Amino acid sequence: MTTSREQRSLPADGRDDVVARLEQENSQLRQAVDSHATVDQAMGVLAAVCRLEPAAGFKVLREVSQRTNIKLHTVADAVLDWASKQKPLPMSVDRELQAALRRQSHAVDDPDQPG
Known about the structure:
Helices cover 74% and strands 0% of the residues. The protein has helices spanning 12-50, 54-68, 72-83, 91-109.
């Protein structure tokens, strides 16, 4: 089986579909990159403020997200807003963040315990 690198012409409506699909994919990739940067920054805040390793910061953010049923990037945005003193943390995020930090602290104190 051979493959050709020459472009095949598509009908005009086919090109429109391909362009629309690629634009949507491009938009989704941009959003993913932005979201990843936000999560990385929030991990940095937790590392600095709570003295966590980056992996532990991600674990804490993920736990808060799962327990509050709020998207990870939204939790990360809230942490960044809180760190820059723009807004207080939403009550549910604050409560779960404190609980996740306690669990993480216990896991560091007793690494043999699951958790």
